[in-house]
Amino acid sequence: MLNPEILEKWDKEYFWHPFTQMKVYREEENLIFERGEGIYLYDIKGRKFIDAISSLWCNVHGHNHPKLNKALEDQLKKVAHTTTLGSSNVPAILLAKRLVDISPEGLTKVFYSEDGAEAVEIAIKLSYQYWRNKGEKRRVFITLSEAYHGDTLGSVSLGGIDLFHGTYKDLLFETLKLPSPYLFCKERYGKLCEECKEELLNMLEELLKSRDDIVAVSLEAGIQGAAGMLPFPRGFLRGVRELTQRYGVLMIVDEVATGFGRTGSMFYCEQEGVSPDFMCLGKGITGGYLPLAATLTTEEVFNAFLGEFGELKHFYHGHTYTGNNLACAVALANLEVFEEEKTLEKLKIKIEHLSQRLEEFWELSHVGDVRQLGFMVGIELVKDKKSGEKFPYGERTGFKVAYKCRERGVFLRPLGDVMVLMPPLVIDIEELDYVIDTLKWAIESL
Ligand SMILES: *Cc1c(COP(=O)(O)O)cnc(C)c1O
Hints:
Blueprint: H1 4-14, H2 22-27, E1 33-37, E2 40-43, E3 48-51, H3 54-57, H4 66-78, H5 90-102, E4 107-113, H6 116-133, E5 140-144, H7 153-158, H8 162-165, E6 175-178, H9 181-189, H10 194-210, E7 214-220, E8 223-224, E9 230-231, H11 236-246, E10 250-254, H12 268-271, E11 278-281, E12 293-298, H13 299-303, H14 325-340, H15 343-358, E13 367-373, E14 376-381, H16 397-406, E15 410-411, E16 418-421, H17 429-444
Parallel strand pairs: 3-15, 5-6, 5-7, 7-10, 10-11
Antiparallel strand pairs: 1-2, 2-3, 4-12, 8-9, 11-12, 13-14, 14-16
The structure holds pyridoxal-5'-phosphate (PLP).
């Protein structure tokens, strides 16, 4: 084993980290993880941390889970990877069937990829080509401000976070944007309510009425995560579904963050009885083990791509590792663990407990807003509670609070000055309390 000093040195010398200002990173002491066990991560210096962001929102049943490990080992003894371009493999078939079984009625086809951004990219291309194959030339997507769908250029085009995406504006295709529901509602009505929902849906309806070149409406499911955990008014997703059906355009729902139990049900769509034309999955699909994503779609879309070979109707898209055997095997085991450990049944009481405890944050002098959907939480820090004035961006207040939490063994990564809590679903009440107490303590220390 290399000593920690050398690893730290090489990490800073050779490794360019994602979403990271490397100048700052190289000046700081960083965590280098070596192993995990349940909700805990251990770094190369032997320190122990609760993984309170599920290793960027993807871990579900904990690290180093015996059942997931075994599924992986069993598959590894057979074969690690075989191509699915024109051939198939056992776990990818079984997983496709399982995903269709647990997804909203009407989603019957599974297209695999490796990351959430690709799952969205595929929904973009499929929806666009769907209309072409039907002989219609449509090219416009309706999206939401503050949306986040990943970092590839197509997904960035659907996205609306200027801070991440502004630089690439010239490279993106144009979309029609509706306001971010949460920000819109806050500004007009002070809160999420029936009136703001109706007003937003009316705006969407006006757009849909006035255009005949709309490919699809795309949005995240129930909450805009990367924008800082901004929930939609209840029923908004349902309303969008009704309008897309009424005006005959497709609907892309991004469940990459919300899928696999995160909001209390297997998929958020269930909570509003929505079955979209495309459902994008990623993050928790393998329980946080391996990169895998999927775009689910309908019989109607699938059928539009059928034809004789020479008609060129098929989908010219694929990746080297599409439907990777190991990833699909562990994704199957992930779903089995949901049943065996009754993950969703047990989650209910934890979500309620979390809601109650979150009330306490409103009393803190630097907390401006507290937002929650299931096991997705955003606590917004402000400089001045009364006026809502923010801390200057360059001060990295969110990171300071996260670093403070490390002193008590809690690993967090904020979104700007929004503290994110998103622990593995398997966390118990006592551990959850410890995370909450630690975060409160860290915010109070500001
Ligand atoms: C994380 C995320 C993505 C992108 O997934 P990657 O695997 O990081 O490419 C897309 N959509 C949503 C809602 C996400 O939270």
